[in-house]
Design a protein that fits this description.
The chain is an alpha/beta fold and 113 residues long. Helices cover 39% and strands 11% of the residues. The chain has 4 helices and 4 strands, in the order αβαβαβαβ. The protein has a 4-stranded parallel β-sheet, with no helix packed on it. α3 (59-66) links the parallel β2 and β3 (74-76). The chain is globular, with a radius of gyration of 13 Å. The N and C termini lie far apart (37 Å). The model has no long low-confidence stretch (mean pLDDT 85).
Length: 113
């Protein structure tokens, strides 16, 4: 799966007109997060579903990319084990996306602290 995911990420880097990306359920290992973040930074994705793909430790790299992606209108980050610490990082990225209309954060690990 790692080789296939690397090839897909390389192909995505060439799709500058990409608007809709659904990679739900494809578990990224940490070495794929930065290249994937570069993909998000280079194209104008409006719909992004990355539910059940990440670990809490990968969120900060993704959040940096998301904070530079102003075309995003819909993002699904459900079931990624996002904790309160990672939620703080994600909130900065969300605030940097003025066109965002839909956010799904269900199934994460927030608490009331």
């Amino acid at each position: 799966q790692e080789i296939g995911l690397s090839q897909i990420i390389e192909a995505l880097k060439k799709l500058f007109a990409l608007r809709h990306l659904n990679i739900m359920g494809n578990h990224f290992c940490c070495k794929h997060i930065l290249p994937f973040a570069e993909v998000l930074h280079s194209c104008s994705v409006e719909y992004l579903n990355i539910s059940n793909c990440l670990q809490n430790t990968d969120i900060s790299v993704l959040a940096i990319a998301l904070s530079h992606t102003t075309s995003l209108r819909h993002i699904d980050l459900s079931n990624n084990g996002i904790t309160n610490v990672a939620a703080d990082i994600i909130s900065i990225a969300i605030a940097a996306n003025p066109n965002l209309r839909y956010i799904n954060l269900t199934g994460n690990k927030f608490d009331d602290e």
